[in-house]
Automatic annotation (TrEMBL):
GO terms for cellular component: cytosol. The keyword Cell cycle does not apply. The lineage of its organism: Bacteria, Bacillati, Actinomycetota, Actinomycetes, Micrococcales. It is an enzyme of class 4 (lyase). NCBIfam families: Glu-decarb-GAD. One of its GO terms (biological process) is L-glutamate catabolic process. This is Glutamate decarboxylase. Belongs to the group II decarboxylase family. It catalyses: L-glutamate + H(+) = 4-aminobutanoate + CO2. The keyword Transferase does not apply. SUPFAM superfamilies: PLP-dependent transferases.
Length: 480
């Protein structure tokens, strides 16, 4: 492609340009010499390009991802205020693991997990009045936090078994069949047998029912989920703990709980403060959460807190000499961003308890509005109503139609820019397909009203079909 012709002196004079004709900086970015040349997709280009050109190419490709705020499939935050964005840009170079070089970021990390420990009602250490006996750390999202929680459960079980002269060959972990995929990975990576308690229409979450059939001497712990990924429902941690209390009375087995609070751990303290799910239950050994979900931080940041130092086996903590200093490390990742930790601290200062309450309540109000509007449509039956975390799911009403399914509705909504996934429920309910909406900070009531209208229009279009929609090519659009 020939380069853009040079401008004429007469043109430059009329439009106030100086500096001679034919200069590259006068050319619009899309007409720069070389701009029309395709960059290779799978190898490093041979030559350089201008920063503005490289930026525009990457920026334009990213536009193809769509509008993140209309993505109602993901739990991950998609909006922060301008001050947070500036702080993010200002601190993107900080390495969280380098506590010798960035001691203040390290101190802020400690402040944050101590704030969370108090929010989750961790007990005070008897030898340190006024301080928490808990210990915690930031992580790369709640998946790493869950991995660390699971590792601590396994190691504590191993220590107890070895001390008693017993085998440590067959550890197992009890989970709901609706558990998040990171727990499947944990069991796979660390050779732990997963024991899935199936959910049913009668027992829609893990609630302690028949738990004695799954727990034995090799059980390292039970995972309770505060906000099931499939539906957003809380698992009743207190009921699970009570079931384990009964099992201990009958068998002597003392089985701890890890609470996977990826979403609910940052919702329940504000919207359901009287709900007992946290360290108020002595059987809860550890709690994890995703800061980049309802902690309201950009991805990726998570937190994990243990009730006491004793709940985190000391042989999992390494003393590392790194870049001129010593530091304890209990993480799967090493070098990782420090900026998100500072963003979390910014939000704690910016919002406080009252601010978090207002933000989470606004999201819940929108979720309840949407669930009521969708539940009122003859085409649908609600699975839950969004009054736990601001997430809810619904199914197609039995007998409503034989011409379309929820995947067809998902496709229709995508034409309007909405990502609303349709997917089968887990084992024992895999014949049931539901659709789910995750309401995050940034989905306003006005947008929600537009969504209701778009769903209404899409259902009317599908109901008016004279023949069934094709099933070929349908994919499960499920985002954990």
């Amino acid at each position: 492609m020939p380069s853009t012709p040079a401008t004429t002196p007469d043109f430059e004079a009329r439009h106030g340009f100086t500096g001679g004709s034919g200069q590259n900086q006068l050319n619009p970015i899309f007409a720069r010499e070389g701009e029309a040349t395709d960059f290779p997709l799978d190898e490093i280009p041979r030559g350089e390009s201008l920063p503005g050109t490289a930026y525009q190419v990457v920026h334009d490709e990213a536009m193809l991802d769509g509008n993140a705020r209309l993505n109602l499939a993901t739990f991950v935050g998609t909006w922060m205020d301008p001050f947070a964005q500036k702080l993010y840009a200002d601190t993107a170079d900080k390495n969280m693991v380098d506590k010798d070089e960035y001691p203040q970021t390290a101190a802020i990390e400690t402040r944050c997990w101590k704030m969370l420990a108090k929010l989750w009602n961790a007990p005070d250490a008897p030898d340190a009045p006024g301080t928490t006996g808990a210990i915690g750390t930031s992580t790369i999202g709640s998946s790493e936090a869950c991995m660390l929680g699971g590792l601590a459960l396994k190691r504590r079980w191993q220590h107890a078994r070895r001390a008693a002269g017993l085998s440590t060959e067959k550890p197992n972990l009890v989970l709901s069949s609706a558990v998040q995929v990171c727990w499947e990975k944990f069991c796979n990576y660390w050779d732990v047998e997963p024991r899935y308690v199936p959910i049913t229409d009668e027992h829609r979450v893990l609630d302690g029912h028949d738990l004695d059939k799954y727990v034995d001497e090799n059980t390292i712990g039970v995972v309770a989920i505060m906000g099931v990924t499939y539906t957003g429902m809380y698992e009743p941690v207190a009921e699970i703990a009570a079931a384990l209390d009964r099992i201990q009375t009958q068998t002597g087995l003392d089985v701890p709980i890890h609470v996977d609070g990826a979403s609910g751990a940052m919702i329940a303290p504000f919207l359901q403060p009287d709900l007992v799910w946290d360290f108020r239950l002595e059987r809860v050994a550890s709690i994890s959460t995703s800061a980049h979900k309802y902690g309201l931080v950009y991805p990726g940041l998570g937190w994990v807190i243990w009730r006491t130092v004793d709940d985190l086996p000391s042989d999992l903590v390494f003393d590392v000499t790194y870049l001129g200093g010593h530091m304890p490390s209990f993480a799967l990742n090493f070098s990782r961003p420090g900026a998100q930790v500072l963003l979390q601290y910014y939000l704690f200062l910016r919002l406080g308890w009252e601010g978090y309450y207002k933000v989470q309540k606004a999201s819940q109000d929108v979720a309840v509005y949407l669930s009521q509007a969708i539940g009122a449509m003859p085409a649908f039956d609600l699975w839950n109503d969004g009054t736990d975390i601001p997430v809810f799911a619904w199914q197609l009403a039995k007998g409503h139609t034989d011409k379309w399914n929820l995947s067809h509705l998902s496709e229709r909504l995508r034409l309007k820019g909405w990502l609303v996934p349709a997917y089968p429920m887990p084992d024992d309910l895999s014949d049931l397909v539901v659709q789910r909406i995750v309401v995050r900070n940034g989905l306003s009531r006005n947008l929600a009203e537009s969504l209701v209208q778009d769903i209404t229009d899409a259902v009317a279009h599908l109901d008016a079909l004279e023949s069934p929609m094709p099933l070929d090519g349908q994919v499960t659009a499920f985002t954990h």
